[in-house]
């Protein structure tokens, strides 16, 4: 059976997305969000229908990867909520009063947040390391076979970015053999950017995402907003709605762990098909279609077969990261498509062949698209009525798909953030708050190192599009004394 995954949510954005993620997981596994008990399946007419005159007794899901199940069949998320100010986590506690382990909910004693300053979030981690690590260790102790961690955070504020960076360093140090996957939200990079120092926080966080995470699924708020406008029935887009787009991706990516199949049933089996080298680990998600199975206020979708979904996933407007390479071709390093719902084999063969014709892989890969048939939760076939009963919905036959792409298009996002960072640092603008931090009190070397490491990743992604990539002598080590490998 798959190993467990511990979810860490840091800061406002991380916790707000986290609550939508847990809401979706509870829905897919028939768990009450109020207290983690199992829902009464008698309220779902036909869910556990009879077959051969025998009731279907066994469930085909495996919630235990993400939930701790106690003797009374109560499910508690393996989730840790870190924030330096109390507002967001207390909203979550009001919404889900008895779902989370109260010992896993942590806010700072002063309750003052990190003031959108990476350095404050990072230093808070350093000075409270024992308390924070205790919570993580305790959660890990409740796992039989921990596979890894997932961190949900924004890279642009103070807590999710600074404390998040600190936690990434700690996880790599203390749990070196465990996988670390992040869901990282980047700022919109436009006039609506709320905080002027976001580029500093982003570059400092990117350094840790590059060095200490095994895989990062990346979103940017501009793309999330456009997607919400295009797919929802409202033009008044809130974080709750954009967060449901993110939680849909998270639920899709973790589907094979929660509904295990023979081929893909661990984080590592999913990531190994996507990440060829340690640095090239930034994944761009696309999802189609967003129906009310995943988000509130979704526009109606009449039809979506496996064929439709595969081709739609190539639509650049569905990407959750804006790319500046509008008309140009991207070079794909790897692609993984996860389909859920009833698919027709012929449809998929036809769809995949068209799909392959429309994309260009980098020259050194095997140019194949990986496909997982996930199981769609049967609970998603139902909608709650006002009488707290459940009725079957009309979405039953819709196929939905998540594409995770590792491609050179991610360079656009990195370059946008670097260019904003370069403008600020050139003028030494708004640095006072950072200079008070431990890493910056002597000099600004940490900034320069981080910028250089991000540049290294940009260069590596660009080089990966060429034949030179595997032949490049400039790799990471140019030290003549390095041990040479025979042969
Ligand atoms: P401090 O407020 O400094 O303590 O840090 P924090 O990590 O709590 O900050 P926050 O998570 O608010 O990060 C700021 C960035 O995240 C900005 O770019 C916001 O637009 C974005 N953001 C904040 N909340 C959300 C959210 O719920 N969803 C999304 N998608 N973005 C968010």
Task: Describe what you observe in this structure.
It is a single chain. The chain is of the alpha/beta class. The protein has two domains: 4-413, Rossmann fold, CATH 3.40.50; 415-471, Helix Hairpins. It is built from 14 helices and 17 strands. The protein has helices at 11-29, 87-95, 118-127, 129-141, 159-174, 198-212, 221-231, 239-258, 267-272, 306-312, 345-357, 410-426, 432-435, 445-464, and strands spanning 4-10, 50-51, 54-55, 67-69, 75-77, 79-83, 105-107, 146-154, 179-186, 215-220, 282-288, 331-340, 360-361, 369-374, 382-384, 390-392, 400-407. Strands 1, 6, 7, 8, 9, 10, 11, 12, 13, 14 and 17 form an eleven-stranded mixed β-sheet that branches. A two-stranded antiparallel ribbon has the order 2-3. Helix 5 (159-174) packs parallel to helix 6 and helix 10 packs parallel to helix 11. The longest helix has 20 residues, at 239-258. The protein is globular, with a radius of gyration of 22 Å. Residues 477-487 have low confidence and may be disordered.
